[in-house]
Design brief:
362 residues, mainly alpha
């Protein structure tokens, strides 16, 4: 009202009401209770960017939330990941002075630019609607999962300097509202952004999504590699060989990429489908790993043991719920919790049985 009286203008059009920051047990912090967390101690140990991102994680407007140090630690790790991505890309871009030659060459290039266009639009939408936690989650997973785990790895054999540089520039702009200090520090080292400030730069303007067929191709490669990694892990096999039908054009065109991303010994074409090994079932392509029979039998034995143990849990829960005295006298919330545990246990058993059936060749 005082601002309106002095200036004749409404001082603001929107007010964002955030909740209280509670202690780790959900109690309101106060000097009298002695549970006040000194933010300066957190800043000294983890940095201000980590504290900002840690507080915003999982936050929703108007709701109180307990302060969790693990969230700050996770945010600090994210800042480290961003720093490592920047160091890698800057090493690959070398003396690059501008991004005028931005041109996607590989399926991975088309895919990452398509993802970047989507994330940029959705993040802006969340920020404009004051959904800050959702915006941060989008940026976090895009950088950690899509850029670091997939695009960086896929680009190691055939790095595209301009696309790498553009991706780095864009993720710094996307992350800046949440981590202004580390992103500004990295920005100052970019050769093509000499004498500029990230804080005054514009929101990323991503070129129109590239070749949709190339994007789909990389998604198919991801599906194959994801299942290869999963199978190699559960069967405890290092660097297996992936076989595929010789007529499969996608795998033929991406054998080296699949070998590298999947940590395979080789990717080999076969004129006919064979029954030995373990077939990939989640990917849409006919291919299989040379998993030894003894390793498959060992895994089936482990699954059988898990089935037996899970069935015992289900039997115990069913017996408890079949006890009329328990259902009648126990608090309703306790009975409801038991029913939920039984439903969850049955789903776990169903998943284990499905996994067993998938690999049982008998």
């Amino acid at each position: 009202m005082f601002g309106l009286y002095n200036t004749g203008k409404v001082p603001f059009t929107s007010v964002y009401l955030h909740g209280l920051i509670l202690d780790e047990h959900g109690q309101k912090m106060s000097k009298s209770k002695g549970n006040v967390i000194n933010p300066m101690d957190i800043l000294e140990a983890y940095g201000s960017d980590a504290l900002r991102m840690g507080i915003i994680t999982g936050m929703s407007a108007g709701n109180n939330q307990p302060f969790g140090l693990p969230k700050v630690v996770g945010a600090r790790n994210f800042a480290n990941k961003l720093w490592n991505i920047a160091r890698y890309i800057e090493d690959k871009t070398g003396d690059l002075k501008n991004l005028d030659g931005l041109e996607p060459n590989t399926a991975a290039d088309h895919w990452v630019l398509s993802k970047l266009q989507q994330i940029t639009t959705e993040t802006a939408s969340h920020i404009e609607a004051y959904r800050f936690a959702e915006a941060y989650e989008l940026v976090y997973h895009f950088i950690w999962d899509d850029v670091a785990d997939w695009y960086i790895e896929a680009s190691k054999d055939t790095p595209n300097r301009e696309v790498l540089g553009y991706v780095l520039q864009s993720i710094l702009q996307l992350t800046h509202p949440f981590a202004p200090f580390v992103t500004e520090t990295i920005w100052q080292t970019l050769a093509w952004q000499e004498s500029t400030l990230l804080a005054t730069s514009s929101w990323p303007e991503v070129p129109a999504a590239g070749n949709s067929r190339a994007v789909k191709e990389f998604e198919d490669v991801k599906a194959i590699v994801t299942e290869v990694r999963y199978l190699a892990k559960i069967f405890k096999t290092d660097k297996p060989t992936l076989y595929y039908k010789v007529t499969d054009k996608l795998i033929t065109a991406n054998t080296e990429l699949i070998r590298t991303l999947g940590k395979l010994d080789a990717v080999v074409s076969s004129p006919t489908d064979i029954t030995s090994g373990v077939h990939l079932t989640q990917a849409k392509h006919v291919c299989w790993l040379d998993i030894a029979v003894d390793k498959r039998e060992q895994y089936l034995t482990e699954l059988a043991g898990k089935q037996t143990a899970q069935q015992k849990v289900i039997t115990q829960l069913e017996a408890r719920l079949s006890n009329k005295a328990y259902v009648k006298n126990a608090p309703k919330e306790v009975v409801a919790q038991t029913e939920a545990q039984l439903e969850s246990a049955r789903k776990v058993l169903e998943n284990i049985a499905g996994e067993y059936h998938r690999f049982d060749k008998k």
